[in-house]
Amino acid sequence: MHLVFRAAGFSALLLSSALTPIFAQAAPAAETNQSASKLDPAKITDLVEKEVTRLGVPSASVAVVVDGKILTAITAGKSALGPDRAASPTARYAIGSNSKQFLAAALLLLQEDGKLSLDDKASKYFSDLGPAGEVTIRQMLSHTAGLTDFWPQDYVFAQMQHDTTPQKIIDGWAKHKLDFAPGSRWQYSNTGYVLAGMILEKVSGQSVFDFLQSRIFKPLGMTSVVNFDQGGLGTTDAVGYTRYGLGAWHPAAPEGKGWMFAAGELAMTAEDLARWDISIINQSLLKPASYREFEKEVVLTNGLGSRYGLGLAVALSNERRVLSHGGEVSGFISQATIYPDQRVAIVVLTNADSNSAADVITDKLKDLVLNGVSPADEVSAKVARAIFDGLREGKLDRTLFSSNANAYFSDAVITEISSSTSPLGKVKTFKLSRSGTRGGMDFRVYEVELEKAKFQLITRALPDGTLEQFMLFPK
């Protein structure tokens, strides 16, 4: 089980620039969602349906949050094959390791209650763990404990086809020499979450699932959630599938009971996982200090960042803060991604392992949704494409450029760009890959693919939208 860790003519564009700079500010951390209402849910449905067909997965269940509200929840494909059953938004999908963020939040709630500290060592609660007794709860939740992962494989190995208990997992994988000194490295470990779940049960006096139900799911109205590790999924829920190479889809072999305890045991609808994402955006369940711990990157003892908080991967992409996690159990892969400062979230659940559909659909939805929420990048890409096409023909609209850029683009430079790029064939791809700010300018990086060559295009724009740079770099 793993963390399953993107042409308009000049005249129309220039007319629009009278109201807003053509190269508008690039995705600031506090960007507003003034265009959220213009995002057409039908475009999301169309994208998901096309990708499910193109990728050949049985089905996908998707929920998209814009401005802190569920904009749409849709499904495509079939939740069961032979006999076929159409996918439904009410069908549950196993979410695998996306379950981990719920355990982390539960332990933060117990810390708020004064019943434990995330810096408590495991030996405070269990006396017979050997070296694992020195590991803290925080290290378990951040995958920095050094506990050997019991399931690094991408398939259900023979032992996992039989029922187990959390204690047996700890006896088999935790009670020996640690893989590394606690806090010194980051290495994904389901075993750490099993031990953390056992601590939660001992401190709270409840099962992990009962605690989650009473403190998280019920308060947030997440009514579909079940513990599939103990009871399986229902006849109206999605069936998990696997395949070998590019062969036919087969029902995936289930894990025995107990193996997913506290690390990947939950199943729910995409809408309910989106409700959880909204609670993170709104910070409505935990105290502010707990959210800071939840979302803060854990730093290793050598000073390097781990790119992981507590049950969540943390990153900065195009100057946007991103919280995300993937999940994989037998027959299911999920991906949940949150842009908390933009108040956007994307949930993709699929009922097939051995594929990248959840990641691919998330990536494409990200482009669609964030362009809909903040259209500056989309407008700027159209302008950049028009300038690029013009340069290949030996033309340049100098009114778009600063004095420095106009000095750079001498007639000789324009001629050389044109003569060297015009024979390279049609444009196959022109896509924004990264954006940000530097030196008071907004920069954007585009990946440009022609029939015979690839380039990286880097633009830099002044605050009024005037271009200070437009440079091609061969790849």
TrEMBL record:
Keyword Plastid: no
Beta-lactamase-related domain mapped to chain residues: 46-364
Keyword match Signal: yes
Keywords, in A-Z order: Signal
Protein name: CubicO group peptidase (Beta-lactamase class C family)
Gene3D superfamilies tied to this protein: DD-peptidase/beta-lactamase superfamily
Signal peptide residue numbers: 1-26
Domain of life according to the entry: Bacteria
